[in-house]
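pasting for the record
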Amino acid sequence: MTTDFSATLAAISDFVCGYPLFLTLIGGGLFLFITSRCISLRCLPYSLSIIREHTNGSNGQISSLEALASVVAATVGMGNIAGVAIALVMGGPGAIFWMWVSALVGMCTKFYEGCLAIMYKGENSKGMPQGGPMYIIEKGLGRKWRPLAVAFAIAGMFGTLCIMNANQVTEAVVATFTTPEGLGGSNFLSTIGSTFGMSNEEAFKLIFGFVMAAIVGSVVLGGVRRIAYFATRLVPFMVGLYFILVLYIILTNITEVPAVVVSIFTEAFSLKAGFGALVGVAIIGARRAALVNDAGVGTASLMHGASRNNSPVREGLVAMLGPSIDSGLVCTLTAFAILLCGDINVEGVKGLEIALTAFDSGIPAGKYLLMVVVLCFSFSSMFTYSYYGTRCASYLFGEQYAPFYTYFFLVSLIIFAVVPLSVAVSVCDLFYALMAFPTMFTILRLRSRVNEEVRRYFSTSGRA
């Protein structure tokens, strides 16, 4: 009975998180991209010019730059490495081109999310300014839509749990930094294992789970300001380190770079396997990018709603830079590293393993250096996702009870470092999709108000 329930739940999750979610995010984002007159392309230079400007206003807790860094800290994660590898295995080099296209679409969606987060900012039960789809729905669509806001908040509490992240980073650490001989010969692990009825490997995972929870707890228990403080320092470091690693691979394989670039563009439009294959490659690349950058899921507005910025359009312009960093820059770095030094012609669907092999063959001790990046990516995601879930809990139960969710989040990291439960992953994936549907519905309903705000802003500032 339990097996049948697990299989049914997994099937439902796979279906909802497949084409329905893809069409919602990519289809809705493409509509916004067209109707906004390609704002993510048209205003990209301007958004880059204002990113470091001082944030005016007092109705918030962090700056626009800190909000952006925190959002990027969440979205730059395992998906930027393992997800890109999977896209290359399934769709070939051409999938990367469609990841770029999806990034442009995602940038437009994030622009609308950032605008609406400021336009319809709310307050928590203690009177502190707070943003997010819950408040956008209530204040933008009206109180009669509050059940939709509640539905988002419930989905947000579970969809933002880092179950897969905690499990996969633990598995990667075990595979990279430990040996069967070392685990088996450890008296300390044997003592822990015998106490809790575990193997030495499971005991190691339990200890790592506690370490992981302690590190994450030391940041997230300090609230959004501490999360933003660490994000603004960790994001440049981890992206910069990753850039240096890939730059080394590019420079040491410089003669092969032109062929890689050509393969990305030619295979993106290749019809040698038929039109159906071309569409399949496009969908694979676009879907992977959509799942990486979280555009349209609603999480970005939770963070940008905490910004001190009083200008919706300026916040939107800053917010739209997120997908250009995660789905654009970081995913491109991964793709080049794998295409230059890896092998994507493998049996089955593999992700992190292919990336680790590529970096290890391209850089001395490359898999260990990549694991440092993976750890940074994973922890940064946990920092921000814990805040997202806590904000949803605060909306539902009040600010005084929100810390209990944070402790629940930390305990979940320990549990899923040890116990890989496919059912729990399916549940989280399903709730993740259930966050996107009300968010995209709300954005599309309120898009005309954002467009009016854009016209007013640019007519006043004299920019096109």
